[in-house]
Amino acid sequence: MAEPRPPLVVVIGSVNVDHVVESDAFPSPGETVLGRTAHVTLGGKGANQAVAAASAGVRTAMVARVGADAAATTARAGLAARNVDVHGVIPVPGAETGTAWITVAAGDNTIIVVSGANHRWPPQRDPTGGAGADADVVLAQLEIPLDVVERAAAACKGRFLLNAAPAAELPDRLISRCHVLIVNEHEQAVVSGQPDTERSTDPAAVRKAHAALRARGAKAVVTTLGGAGAIITDTDGATTAIPAIPATVRDTTGAGDAFVGVFAARLAAGDSLLHAAQLGTAAGSLAVRAAGAQQYCADLDTLRAMVATVTPDKKD
Q1: What does the alpha-carbon distance between residue 22 and residue 251 come to, in Å, rounded to a whole number?
Q2: Residue by residue, what is the 3-state secondary structure of the chain?
Q3: 122 phi and psi angles, rounded to 5 deg
Q4: The pLDDT value given to residue 100
Q5: Positions marked catalytic
Q6: How far apart are alpha carbons 217 and 158 in whole angstroms?
Q7: What pLDDT does residue 268 have?
């Protein structure tokens, strides 16, 4: 009798090289401030989420476009070292690998992204090259062209998860393909068409936005709220608030990606929506404690032990 096939997450998205500066304060326009440290690391929402998914105990494959440059070799090697399959990370002749320029100060960050090869995809029917048909979960973000995301969703035979980041208005045909749509409070306001950002973290406002998105076809919706935890609405329409796990914040870069990657991995492994989100919250809590988008590291047992310290709040 054949052995059961282990779960697989295919992440289609961006791969960047991150240039990170830590400072005591953000500069105002025209101002120069002194930084404390500077370093270069791997990033891109797609790559960050793939690393997080692999850390959560499932097979993970990355589908991406990088440049024909030394940075691409570094990026592929870095992903492979973190147990991410990189056969789908394809160099594009004449392009440069994407870069992100990140300033970290006062427990927050600002980011400028230069997309490079992340926006150089061929106009083929299935951008996953068939990998999406074999995956338990296909996970995408919006740092690659929207039409590539839509084609990946169409090719997915398992669950399609979309992290709508950076924020963008989305067509109903894409939202209706989402088994789970994942947003933060800013993305929620843009995607749901309810831009009351001052109230976007209020549970009632989140439930209203989730209802609007489910009415457009999303089967479930998750809103991450940073230090306020997360709120999920499942496929039955029940909404649950998940408290944050307290942490001393050093760098919020990549915390949302840690949540999303672990969440996708645990759904692929058969966990419930609620438990997967709880584990994702634990991953986000760990991520803010270290500098860099991919620097945190925790095994599944550690995440489960953290989750055991908090209890979700069922809203309706």
Answers
A1: 9
A2: CCCCCCCEEEEECCCEEEEEEEECCCCCCCCCCCEEEEEEEEECHHHHHHHHHHHCCCEEEEEEEEECCHHHHHHHHHHHHCCEEEEEEEEECCCCCEEEEEEEECCEEEEEEECHHHHCCCCCCCCCCCHHHHCCEEEECCCCCHHHHHHHHHHCCCEEEEECCCCCCCCHHHHCCCCEEEEEHHHHHHHHCCCCHHHCCCHHHHHHHHHHHHHCCCCCEEEECHHHCEEEECCCCCEEEECCCCCCCCCCCCHHHHHHHHHHHHHHCCCCHHHHHHHHHHHHHHHCCCCCCCCCCCCHHHHHHHHCCCCCEECC
A3: -75, 150
A4: 87
A5: 257
A6: 17
A7: 97
**Residues of the chain with confidence (pLDDT) below 70:** 1-3, 196-200, 247-254, 288-297, 311-316
Which two three-digit tokens encode residue 60? Answer: 């993970």
Looking at residue 9, its pLDDT comes to 98
pTM: 0.89
